[in-house]
Amino acid sequence: MIITRSPLRVSLGGGGTDLKSYYQDHGGFLVAAAIDKYVYITKHTTFQEEIIVKYSKMERVSSVDQIEHPIVREALKMTGVTDPHIELTSMADIPGGTGLGSSGSFTTALLKALHTHKKSLVSPAELAEQACEIEIDRLGEPIGKQDQYIAAVGGITAFTFHKDGHVEFRPCKVSEETLYNLEDNLLLFFTGYSRSASAILKDQNDKSKRNDPAMLDNLHYTKELGYKSLESLESGDLERFAALMDVHWQRKKARSSGMSNAHINDWYDCAMANGALGGKLIGAGGGGFLMFYAGDKKRLRHAMREKGLQEVRFRFDFEGTKVVAQN
Question: Fewer Cβ close by (within 10 Å): the C or N end of the chain?
Fold first, then answer.
C-alpha cells in the first residue's frame, strides 16, 4: 500500500496572473501558501484483475481507457501504469470546489503515488509540471499553474510565470516572528458555497485572449499587488499586507460578475467592521472560503459565528506533496 498527501493552499497576492492566456504575453507573478489541510491518495494492489477507483463515486473497470474520472485516466496513461490489479482511493480534509486548489492537490498526490508505485523519482517541479500538463494541456481546463506548484513544493512561496511557460519559484524570506503572526491572525471561514472554478476562470481566460483592455489592466495591477504583498511579508509589515488583501479583493470582484454575491459582500463588510484589517475570497470566486487578516481575532470570530460561518483553523505546510506511508 502507498499513501500520499498534497496540501491545499491559500493565495496571498497576485492570483489570476498564472493563467497562460495572461503570462504568455505579460509574465505572471504570485505568492501562495500551502496549508495543513490535505488531499490523500491511497494506492493498493488487489487480487482481482480490475482497476478500482474510489472518489465521490466508485468505478470498477478492466482497462485504463474505460475510467470516467479524467484526471485519474490521464495520470495512469502519463505514468504508464496499466496494472489491472490496482485500487486508487482519494480522501480530502476539505470538500472540492471550495477555492483551496483541491484539483491541483489531487493531481499531484495521485501522480506521486503512481511514480512511487513504479519506483521512479520525480522532483517537485517535475511533479507540478506533469499535473499542469494533465489538467491544462490534456483536459483543457481554463486554469492556472499555481495550485499544482504550491501543492508540490509547499511553504510560503513566490512564483514567477515566464512567457515561455517556465515557472521559477523560491521560498519567501519571512522571519519566524512574521510567520507566527501570520498563522495566528489569518482566519479562514467557509461560506457554505461550493462551485467549479472553471466557469469563472473561463470568462477571465476568454477576455485575456481577446486582449480585453479592462481585464488586462486588472491583471497588470493584480501582479503589482503580488510584488507588494511579497515585499510586505518579507519586511514583516503585516498591516500593509492586510490592506493589500482588501485592495486585491476589490480588484478581483471587478474581474467577473460571478466573483461575488450579496451574501459574500455582506459577510465581508461585517468582518471589516468587526476586527478584520483586510481579506478576500480564496480561489476563483463565487464561493468557498473567505480569508481575513484579523486585528481583533475574538471580535471577528464572534461576528462570523453570528453570521453562521464556520471557521477552519490552519497552519502552514512546508513539506509539499509527499509519501506518508508505504509497505
Answer: C
